[in-house]
Design goal:
Blueprint (H helix, E strand, L loop, with lengths): L4 H8 L23 H14 L4 H9 L3 H9 L9 H15 L3 H14 L12
Length: 127
């Protein structure tokens, strides 16, 4: 059965997470302040260490274009200045970081997209 990665991280972004990829506990719930600078640094470093691109991450997890993802990762606004809609990508980033299978899911989507069999999406992203 195909899973829409965007739905996975939308649903998880509302729940408090217990651990991260590097097994560091995180206690931030949806209503807590999120350190957007630290969060984006961790996402950027993890993507880079696994050779995964911002375009792939944006399409699969954040539902944003590569340009928007680049802007978010380079110049994150403080949590307190973000609207509820502006907080959504950061909540999805946090959900992805706490997903022990996040890298695997992204790699699976990447290989499926390359072969034209987007099993992790309802529809394939535009090429």
């Amino acid at each position: 059965m195909a899973v829409d990665l965007r739905s996975v991280y939308s649903q998880q972004s509302g729940a408090a997470a217990a651990t991260t990829h590097d097994d560091q506990p995180t206690s931030a719930s949806v209503s807590d302040d999120v350190d957007t600078q630290e969060l984006t640094t961790r996402v950027r470093d993890l993507l880079q260490s696994h050779g995964l691109g911002q375009k792939l991450f944006g399409e699969a997890v954040l539902e944003l274009s590569q340009g928007s993802v680049s802007e978010l990762l380079a110049k994150p606004k403080p949590w307190s200045l973000l609207s509820a809609k502006g907080r959504e990508p950061f909540l999805r980033m946090r959900a992805w970081l706490t997903d022990p299978h996040g890298i695997e899911r992204l790699r699976a989507f990447q290989s499926q997209a390359l072969t034209g069999k987007c099993a992790f999406y309802i529809s394939c992203p535009e090429s």
